[in-house]
Design goal:
Layout: H1 3-11, H2 16-24, H3 29-44, E1 47-50, E2 52-57, H4 83-96, E3 100-105, H5 113-126, E4 131-135, H6 141-149, E5 154-156, H7 164-170, H8 177-190, E6 193-200, H9 207-220, E7 224-229, H10 246-259, H11 269-274, H12 278-285, E8 289-290, H13 297-300, H14 320-329, E9 333-335
Parallel strand pairs: 1-8, 1-9, 2-3, 3-4, 4-5, 5-6, 6-7
Helix pairs in contact: 3-10, 4-5, 5-6, 6-8, 10-12
This protein binds 5'-deoxyadenosine.
């Protein structure tokens, strides 16, 4: 094993120049992925945890320049699920073997604390053996506290970039990196298993900003880290910006597995969209979670964060059996459990 990968394994704290080299060339990839697989194996074996992703609303009060469901996109066909529809998704998901439900949506005021707490209580009441994960953007500390008291277990909120200037390239005035970080520290402090992450290859991203992302994550110590390539959406100001690369995304998954040996690292939908075998490749780079789509079929193509987002085939929760088959070809085993982070 090369000295660089050895050092990465030993303390995860590579000096700046070495991290830069690791990020900029493909010369370490083989070793990096092999080593990442070993670390993953130590804590999680060959297990793959699954999450049923329920996209509850594509209304959003935010106007992030990269995102297809941004407020200013007049072409988005907006929807929000009813409480009954959400419960029906859980029922179907439970039958399929899902023991974590992820309720994700734009920042939609309709899903206020009262409605969200009722939904969370209903799900936890009916499926006490399941974890509920929320991904609903920035809310007040008090709101997060209420959701936690109602029984939510986990919360996903990507920081998107840990560099102030880059954050302002990606977001309109009014959105603020400090506020985002404060939300993340609040979530952790309240007791949520907390997830963060960023897009790979977003406009304005550099090796330096990526290193800042890694350093910020080391400070936050999240339980989950979601990354995926930036992919353009035709109705956004970034429509002509180049897509992120699968190579760099996989390399970063491998690096994250070293820096956060026990973290839950999803092989994301964006990775599956950019390459037909993207999710498998993610697993082989060190990921250990997949999040198939459990949203009702009639809304799936509306939750379009980027062009051509996959939502059928192996991406769909109904195809769990086929996904399991595909995963087993590469020696991975999908398990029906909450899939909490290793102790
Ligand atoms: N390409 C890739 N990922 C995107 N996201 C939003 N828009 C895009 C895009 N165009 C990601 C963001 C967000 C998560 C839900 O989806 O990182 O946090």
């Amino acid at each position: 094993m090369s000295r660089l990968i050895e050092q990465l394994r030993e303390d995860g704290n590579l000096p700046e120049e070495k991290l830069q080299r690791l990020l900029q060339t493909d010369e370490y990839d083989r070793e990096l992925f092999q080593s990442a697989m070993e670390i993953r194996e130590k804590y999680y074996g060959r297990k793959v945890y699954i999450r049923g992703l329920i996209e509850i609303s594509n209304y959003c009060g935010n106007d992030c320049y990269y995102c297809g469901i941004r407020k200013s996109n007049q072409n988005a066909s907006r929807y929000r699920l009813t409480e009954e529809e959400i419960m029906e998704c859980c029922r179907i998901g439970y039958g399929l073997g899902f023991r974590t439900f992820v309720l994700q949506g734009g920042e939609d005021g309709w899903f206020n604390d009262e409605r969200m707490c009722r939904i969370i209580r209903n799900i936890k009441g009916k499926y006490p053996d399941c974890a509920v994960t929320l991904s609903l953007g920035e809310r007040s500390r008090q709101s997060y506290e209420r959701l936690y008291e109602a029984g939510a277990d986990r919360y996903l909120l990507r920081h998107e970039t840990a560099d102030e200037t880059h954050y302002r390239i990606l977001h309109p005035p009014g959105m603020d990196l400090q506020k985002r970080k404060e939300c993340l520290f609040n979530l952790k402090d309240i007791g949520f298993a907390t997830g963060s992450g960023f897009m790979v290859g977003s406009p304005g991203q550099t090796v330096e900003t990526i290193i800042k992302d890694l350093r910020f994550l080391q400070e936050l110590k999240p339980d989950m880290i979601g990354i995926g390539p930036y992919l353009r959406h035709k109705d956004t100001p970034f429509k002509d910006c180049e897509d992120g690369s699968i190579e760099l995304t996989l390399r970063l998954i491998g690096i994250l597995r070293h820096l956060f040996p026990k973290a839950l690292l999803p092989s994301t939908t964006a990775l599956g969209t950019i390459h037909p075998q993207g999710r498998q490749l993610g697993m082989m780079a060190g990921a250990n979670v997949v999040m198939p789509n459990l949203s009702p079929a009639h809304v799936r193509n509306k939750y379009e964060l980027y062009d051509d987002k996959i939502c059928t085939g192996d991406e769909a929760a109904e195809s769990k059996a086929h996904l399991a088959e595909q995963m087993s070809l590469t020696g991975f085993e999908i398990v029906e459990s909450r899939g909490d982070r290793a102790e």
